[in-house]
């Protein structure tokens, strides 16, 4: 029995190593000097780590700007989608009204819609809207904020609903008896109490906007300055010779923020998923 | 706030309704509309008026061998990814319940890390690992000069591996949580009765986990059916002569590379209908698992 357990332990460790190996390889390749990257004899370590690739990516290709664009889009999506989802979640948990269940099911179905299929109509929508409202047309970061706010909303509402439900009704009733208006109850009582839920929801929204490749590729066609990370990264792929050092450095820059997020919210992530699936 | 009939929920729901109506419902309607129009570059630039063509986009699509081969590839690719993801995820979930604390922590952290890696970064990293000349894998196995992307099946296999690597953690974490929720006494009783690991898994865990399994399976089907980024990045937009196209990438290429917007929209509608059917099964599974709406 004990030998069997040790064998399983060893298997788990080996599988863990295989799973993280690509990530290790990515970071390793990012800090390898150029000569070792081009080598026909790749070593799984380096004795002369260098930040050349990062320098090339950030200084020459102005990656800092794309990083900033990605951060701006993701943060705007988190804020707007969080606020709208909070209001909707309150409506759906604190009130009984006709079609409430229908609306809930609609949000659930909306999560399943293959948003990729909507690229074509959204492209024309954004193009036309851009002629009226300049900030959200093609080649603007606003267009990305707009579509990702919409795509993250159904899940955010569904998830926040669980958190609002967990706050006892008596709390807002007591506040109302004390003369607090509906607005005060919303901002002063409910919002602070669902803050942990908002934090968990934000992570999902952030990652969704951060990882997006398709819409950035479709909407940002001619303004190179407004690209986000996933698109900017593809610049280093060249027909004859890919600049692997730069590609891996850029990939690392793109991965690190998400990785940190995931590790920070590790526990919430599982609990949140449970809550989203069944609360 | 009391549960009385007021107008309050209306203004609370208004922002969400505006955003979702404008960016979900309206585009869905537009997608359907585009699919029955003759809509190509000429119409986009305003050179020619848009023309209603009825089901022509669909009949041409269904009469095209290319479409059927892409559809077949999509279904097979998604099925293979789903099966592999479930097998790996479920296997590792069971493994997690049987190992000591430290290996368990290591494996969970490793899986979480793989989950966190953005699709684009994951794709580029695996491309480098499997690069023809500079790839570690080719050098390790002494098959330098072998290009994984030339052959249709090795290319699909490599993309599939990235998809599974990125999506097994969700299955593993969810199923592990489900297994942990099974009362220990049930599993102990089974062990006392002489039930082995394999038998315990199929006869006890699987039936007790059916609701969670249903969710995990359907979720995986939906994800793997519409893989876009990995295919687009790794095969440079669909592989040599489009050998690695899936429905999603095919629709995108038809619309934005060939300017056949009507045709791309028709493919989108087909995809939407297939996933809608899957979603309805999902909803029924949720209902059966006792979800209160």
UniProtKB/TrEMBL annotation, chain B:
The chain crosses the membrane at residues 12-29, 67-96, 105-129, 155-179, 200-222, 265-283. It is a multi-pass membrane protein. The keyword DNA-binding does not apply. One of its GO terms (cellular component) is plasma membrane. It is found in: Cell membrane. Coiled coil: none annotated. SUPFAM superfamilies: MetI-like. Keywords: Cell membrane, Membrane, Sugar transport, Transmembrane, Transmembrane helix, Transport. GO terms for biological process: transmembrane transport. Residues 71-282 form the ABC transmembrane type-1 domain. Its main location: membrane. Belongs to the binding-protein-dependent transport system permease family. This is Sugar transporter. It comes from Actinoplanes utahensis. The lineage of its organism: Bacteria, Bacillati, Actinomycetota, Actinomycetes, Micromonosporales.
């Amino acid at each position: 029995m004990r030998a069997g357990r040790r064998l399983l332990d060893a298997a788990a460790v080996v599988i863990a190593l295989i799973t993280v190996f690509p990530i290790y390889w990515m970071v390793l390749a990012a800090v390898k000097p150029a000569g070792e990257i081009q080598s026909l004899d790749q070593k799984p370590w380096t004795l002369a780590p260098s930040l050349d690739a990062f320098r090339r990516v950030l200084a020459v290709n102005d990656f800092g700007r794309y990083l900033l664009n990605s951060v701006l889009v993701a943060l705007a999506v988190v804020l707007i989608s969080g606020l709208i989802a909070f209001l909707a979640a309150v409506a759906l948990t604190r009130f009984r009204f006709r079609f409430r269940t229908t609306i809930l099911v609609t949000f659930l179905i909306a999560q399943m819609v293959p948003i990729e299929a909507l690229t074509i109509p959204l492209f024309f929508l954004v193009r036309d809207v851009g002629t009226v409202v300049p900030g959200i047309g093609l080649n603007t970061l606003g267009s990305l904020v707009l579509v990702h706010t919409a795509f993250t909303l159904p899940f955010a509402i569904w998830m926040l609903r669980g958190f609002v439900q967990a706050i006892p009704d008596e709390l807002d009733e007591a506040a109302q008896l004390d003369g607090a208006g509906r607005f005060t109850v919303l901002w002063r009582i409910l919002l602070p109490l669902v803050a942990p839920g908002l934090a968990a929801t934000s992570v999902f929204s952030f990652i969704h906007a951060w990882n997006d490749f398709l819409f950035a590729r479709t909407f940002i066609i001619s303004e190179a300055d407004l690209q986000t990370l996933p698109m900017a990264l593809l610049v280093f792929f060249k027909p004859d010779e890919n600049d692997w050092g730069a590609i891996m450095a850029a990939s690392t820059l793109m991965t690190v923020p998400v990785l940190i997020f995931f590790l920070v919210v590790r526990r919430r992530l599982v609990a949140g998923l449970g809550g989203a699936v069944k609360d | 706030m009391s549960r009385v009939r007021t107008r309050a929920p209306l203004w609370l729901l208004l922002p969400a309704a505006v955003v979702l109506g404008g960016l979900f419902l309206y585009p869905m309607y537009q997608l359907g509309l585009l699919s029955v129009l003759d809509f190509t570059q000429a119409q986009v630039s305003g050179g020619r008026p848009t023309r209603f063509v009825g089901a022509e986009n669909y009949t041409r699509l269904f009469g095209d061998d290319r479409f059927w081969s892409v559809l077949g590839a999509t279904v097979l690719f998604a099925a293979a990814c789903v099966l592999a993801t479930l097998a790996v995820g479920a296997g590792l979930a069971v493994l997690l319940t049987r190992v000591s604390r430290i290996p368990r922590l290591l494996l969970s952290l490793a899986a979480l890390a793989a989950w966190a890696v953005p699709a684009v970064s994951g794709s580029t990293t695996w491309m480098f690992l499997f690069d023809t000349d500079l790839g570690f894998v080719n050098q390790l196995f002494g098959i330098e000069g072998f290009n994984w992307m030339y052959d249709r099946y090795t290319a699909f296999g490599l993309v599939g591996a990235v998809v599974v690597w990125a999506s097994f953690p969700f299955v593993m974490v969810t199923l592990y949580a489900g297994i942990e929720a099974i009362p220990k006494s049930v599993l102990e009783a089974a062990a006392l009765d002489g039930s082995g690991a394999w038998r315990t898994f199929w006869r006890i865990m699987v039936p007790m986990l059916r609701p969670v399994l249903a969710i995990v399976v359907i979720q995986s089907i939906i994800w793997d059916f519409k893989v876009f980024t990995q295919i687009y990045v790794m095969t440079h937009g669909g592989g040599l002569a489009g050998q690695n196209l899936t429905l999603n990438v095919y629709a995108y290429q038809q619309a934005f590379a060939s300017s056949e917007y009507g045709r791309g929209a028709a493919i989108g509608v087909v995809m939407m209908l297939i996933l809608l059917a899957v979603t309805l099964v999902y909803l029924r599974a949720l209902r059966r698992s006792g979800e209160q709406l």
